[in-house]
Structures are given as C-alpha cells and as structure tokens.
Amino acid sequence: MRLQESMTVYEKLNILTDAAKYDVACTSSGTERKSDGTGIGSCQQSGICHSFSADGRCISLLKILFTNECVYDCKYCINRRSNDVKRASFTPDEICNLTMEFYRRNYIEGLFLSSGVLKSPDYTMELLYAALYKLRVEYHFQGYIHVKAIPGASRELVYRLGLLADRMSVNLELPTAEGLKLLAPHKTRKTILEPMRLVQNRMEENKQEIALYRNAPRFVPAGQSTQMIIGATPETDYQIINVAEALYQKFGLKRVFYSAFIHVNEDKNLPARTDEGPPLLREHRLYQADWLLRYYHFEAKELLSEENPNFNILLDPKCNWALRNLEVFPVEVNRASYEMLLRVPGLGYKSAMRIVKARRLGTLDFPDLKKMGVVLKRAMYFLTCNGRMLYPVKMEEDYITRNLLNTKERLPQGVAGMTYRQLSLFDDVKFGGGLHEKDVYLHG
C-alpha cells in the first residue's frame, strides 16, 4: 500500500469524509486551549459547533479519515480489506491545509481525525503523529483536535500523539470479546484496552506534573472516549450497559458512544438484512441510560437485569425504573434528598438542584416547580407538595403507563395556569456552553 498522489485533494476529501460518517464518537470539546497570540484558533470549554446528518448522527468538526486503506477485514466495516471500494489517503500536509482552510472560512472549529490501518498500527500512528505535529508546530493551530488511536500501536506513539490532541479515543468496536472474535478476528480486547489504560495512567501523571509545573505539556486534556457498535452481535442492553459502566469506573472515560449497526456488507456472521434499518431507537435508549449512569447516580443493575435484559421501547429508562419501583413514590418535594429527586421522571439534575436551593427559603408548590422547569406532565404521578398530589391519581403501573403514553390526555378543569406537553427525558436541561438540549436527546 502507498499514499495516493494521483487524486486531487477534493476527490480524496469526498471519499474520506464519506468513509468517516460511520464513526459517531464526535462531540464538544470539554477542554480549554487558549491562543497565546502566536498561532491561529482557540478551543473553549463551551464546545465545538455541531451539525447533524439526516439520521441524527454528529458530523461536526472537519471529520475525516487519514486513509480508508486497511489491512484488517472486520466483517461489519465498509473499509475492510476484502471490499472493492475506492481507496484514498491524505498526506500530512494535505490534512494541515484542509484544516486551516476550513477554519479560516469559519466552517469548523477543530479536527476529528481517524484512520484505517495502513500497513501496520505503528506505521499509521506515525502518519497521524506527523499530521498533528505539523498542524500544531508548523501551522500553529491551537484549536480542538480529537484523534483516534490505533490499537496495537506502541506505547511511545500513543504518548506522543496524546501530547498533541485534546481528546483521544480507542474504539471498543463490539461490547464483548466473543463478538470481537466473531466479527473482527484481527483485533483483540487486550490490544484495545492497553492504550485505554495507558491514556488513563498518563493523564493522572500529567495532572500531577501540571500541579508542580504550570507550563508542563498537557496530555489529552479533554479525556478519552470509545465507541461500541450496537446490534451487530446478540448482546442484550443489560450486557451493553454493564460494559459501559465498567469502562467509566475502571478507565475514567468521558463518554461511551453507541453506534447503531448499519448493514453495509453481506456476511453470514452479520444479522440478516431487514427493511427496519439501523436500530436507532435502541441506540437512543442506550444514550438515555448512559446519561442516567453519568449524571443521575443510577447503577446498571437498577435499570436492567438478567430477567429483564432490554429497555422498554415505549418508555425511557428513567420512567421505566420509576414504574417498576412505585413503592418509593410519591416523593415529597419539600423533604426528599437531592439523590431521590433525581429519580423522579420529569426532573432533571438542573431542576433538582433548583428545588434543593429554593426550598431553603420557603415551602414549594406545583406552580413553583413549573417555573423551575419541572416537566409536570410526567412528574405529577411521582411527586407531592405539602403532602398532596397535583390531582388524585391511582398509584398503579398500568394506570400511570397509559397516561404517560397518552400525549393528548387532558387534565381536570380547575388546574388554572398550568399547561403541559409531552417532553423527552432531558428537556429541562439547559446547557450554557453551546450544547443544545437536542444534542443530548439525540446523542446522549
């Protein structure tokens, strides 16, 4: 294999941006890289500008592959070695020129760079390092960079690349080692987890270095993430969410991304092609559950079990948990702990915090909750104010479920000044840093 030089940059761009569309691990920066006046660009914690494709996938930043050449033959991948697809590769200088020109035109605020495996993991990582080194040192680019590390590359290359990137990710690919062995036999769980552990350990060491020496170089300041393909192998939601929880706890990941399996290849080991398309609803439920793990103090074992291994297609995971645990409801809003308020459907962590602060100054009632952003259309079945509910309801699972699913339900007359609408689980969350609620709704 060799780097393509016969194509124009525009032709390569068309091929390699299209080849990158299946990689969803692309999100706001979560880090700050201020310009020192000698270069171009900056990176704010408020995040990177986003746009979305028709199916809801994030396509922000300049999102490209260095190459779609690959020595591996993963059965689910459009760029696998055995596929007859048009191949292309950038040079490091082309990556730099594209990034700078897109940035100058205000099309992007950063770079998302991934790659197929050209010749070997080390050879590919050398090329990625050369591109990022030129971009940072020769082109003085100080904007956000997210790079994908190649499993199997040397520790030294992973470390050197981490000094240039804001975020680094290593794709887990599939939730279990069995699935990986079936569909990606050239990859192993060991080669994937080793760079994750290296990044985690080096980040901790870097924090100590920065505490001692303020000007010490920063290593992956925005943390690391990973991606799992959902639906290509028969794992249950319970297995997947347990894997995600373990990754957060053991490797300190910032995000786990879930990518609904898209049928781009024919193979006997892949699920049969259907007219239903990618399992996007399942992907969405996993993102909602992932949010509960990271911000709402839930554990995976509370959301699902071996007896009930998959999420409800009609109700979000938080509502589903509440309906299965009606014995703990209704919750008195003026006395309940912050942790318990987080478990009330219709209450987000922002509104729960507002409640905790406001009730120090006086007793709260339902009109007060509405002003705080509580989605009373959901919360009214699970909350009391001063010992009373908004209106009499049966604390029965079937009754509440029917009402939650009936978006046209009318409330009794006499509840003056109250208007309701059916919202998503996180609609009361307002991000001041540039990330809109719909980003959470679509991408967790």
From TrEMBL:
InterPro entries: Aldolase_TIM, DNA_rSAM_put, Endo/Exo/Phosphatase_dom_1, rSAM, rSAM_sf, RuvA_2-like. Residues 64-204 form the Radical SAM core domain. SUPFAM superfamilies: Radical SAM enzymes, RuvA domain 2-like. Keywords: Iron, Iron-sulfur, Metal-binding, S-adenosyl-L-methionine. CDD domains: Radical_SAM. It comes from the Bacteria. It holds the Pfam family Radical_SAM. This is DNA modification/repair radical SAM protein. The lineage of its organism: Bacteria, Bacillati, Bacillota, Clostridia, Lachnospirales.
